[in-house]
Amino acid sequence: MHTVVEQTLLRIFLGEDDRADGRPLFEALVLRARELGIAGATVLRGPLGYGHASRLHTAKILRLSEDLPVVVEIIDEEARIESFLTEMSPWLVHKLVTLERVRVVRFP
After folding, report:
1. What is the CATH number of the domain that holds 81?
2. Count of alpha carbons within 13 Å of 46, Cβ hemisphere only?
3. Can you give the pTM of this predicted structure?
4. Left if phi > 0, otherwise alpha if psi is -120 to 50, otherwise beta: which for 97?
5. Which of 1, 29, 67, 77 is deepest in the core (most CB within 10 A)?
6. What's the CA angle centered on 102, arms 97 and 103, to 5 degrees?
């Protein structure tokens, strides 16, 4: 048997080189979400992407990285996600942020 609950999925698109408080921004966001007891967070690193400036960010054989794209996904109840977004807004200037309603399936 399983249960299905409605939650909100927050996605934050940023670059690997983005920083906050002396550490990678993706790390700072996940650690803060954990401190706040947010249900879950995952960081996804992409091999290729571009943003509003249309500048390609890519992994090349001869280079370790070129500010590769990173997506932070955070999930919890809508009110908790909204509160998190409000607190983190100074770090999210010029970042693409999306919100989606999702159905979470929980298995015992």
Report:
1. 3.30.70.120
2. 14
3. 0.88
4. beta
5. 29
6. 165
